[in-house]
Fold:
Amino acid sequence: MNNIREIQPMLKEFHLNLKAKLLEGKDDNYQLQREMEQLQREKLQIQQQILFSHKRILELEKNVGIIREDQQDDEGDGDENGNYDDDQDSQLHNHYSDQYESGDQSQDQNEHNENQGYNNYNQ
Structure:
């Protein structure tokens, strides 16, 4: 009986310390998850800017009449009308569109995880 009275305060203190460490770990994880989501949003924004810049460069090159070196080397690689820029542009657009769409899905998943983590954090 004496041992139980001596052990109970030690167990309570241990439990409180363990709970504090757990909450601290959850808080750190929550902050890291928020940072990852922000970086993902920035990445998608940069990809969109790259796509826009690429399209703008191709448009300006067409307007000015600049023929890029890789176009001269690959002149036969365009379609039957010689629209190499359009092929390259559509490939780049498809590449970034696919990444953006998968980014939207991961964004939805991140928001779900964030809400789940927030709910767990508040419990």
Summary: DSSP finds three helices and no strands in the chain.
